[in-house]
Amino acid sequence: MSPENAFLSQLSGADARELQRQIRPVHLELGDVLTACGDLVSHIYFPETALLSIVSSSFGGQSVEVGMVGREGGGGLLEILTKRPTPYTILVQIEGEAWQAPASAVRSLSETSPSFRQALWDQIAFSTTEARQAVVCQARHRGDRRLARWLLEAMERIGRDGAADDFVPLTQEYLAAMLGMQRTTVSTMAREMQSRGLIRYQRGRIHIVDRNALEKVACECRSILREARRAAREGLALSG
């Protein structure tokens, strides 16, 4: 196993060998529900080219994304420690490849390996920062700034560097649901960004045309999450 997932690739040799015995590669399809709200997490998914979304829903049926998981981490890590039903849904936002491990195996390793447990907590600390920042972002930041930040984050977390031929394979309808906006609002913002030469939208693909300019549009959450992700990577390196 030679994973491109940052969490897996930086595990210590002993931890990696132990997990390798029970982990397997899987292809995740767009819209797959990996853990439904109210269920126990049965498997942990460590994306490589897929992107997972952590979605919270209201009693009225409205949904909004409170976190995303790409190749920096794993979906369901916090929930296996609490051993309680998850209060939100974990689903596939962008289809692609990932590694799947039984939750019981990951939980067992966290109980027997101090280095793995520390790596787990470093990743959970990042996820917690992201969830809290999502509340601020939703309440305080303009839609176009949130959209710019989301596109940049998504591009990085599926392992694409923003080259001219890179794209985020996502429809405006799905993106609107993740951001908690109306589709017409997202469509208007996307057209404006396209007219400014920042992105190009075509057939369910959003291409980032001018990454540097898009970075300037993105809200401050972008830099906050980048720093939190860097801290998590450094923690993983130390624990490994």
Strand order of the largest sheet: 2-6-4-5
Largest sheet: 4 strands, antiparallel
CATH architecture of the largest domain: Sandwich
Q: Helix coverage percent of residues? A: 40-55%
First and last CA, distance? 17 Å
Tally the beta strands.
Answer: 10
**How many structural domains?**
2
Low-confidence stretches: none
In CATH, the topology of the largest domain is named Jelly Rolls
Radius of gyration (Å): 18 Å
Number of helices: 10
Instruction: Give the rounded overall mean pLDDT.
Output: 88
> What's the CATH superfamily of the largest domain, by name?
Jelly Rolls
Order of helices and strands: HHEEEEEHEEHHHEHHEEHH
Q: Structural class, from helix and strand content?
A: alpha+beta
- The share of residues in extended strands comes to 15-25%
Please characterize this protein's 3D structure.
The chain has 240 residues and is an alpha+beta fold. Helix content is 49%, strand content 21%. It has 2 domains: 6-114, Jelly Rolls (Sandwich), CATH 2.60.120.10; 142-219, Winged helix-like DNA-binding domain superfamily/Winged helix DNA-binding domain (Arc Repressor Mutant, subunit A, Orthogonal Bundle), CATH 1.10.10. It has a 4-stranded antiparallel β-sheet with strand order 2-6-4-5. The protein has a 3-stranded antiparallel β-sheet with strand order 1-7-3. Strands 8-10-9 form a 3-stranded antiparallel β-sheet. The longest helix is centred in the middle third of the chain and has 27 residues, at 114-140. The chain is globular.
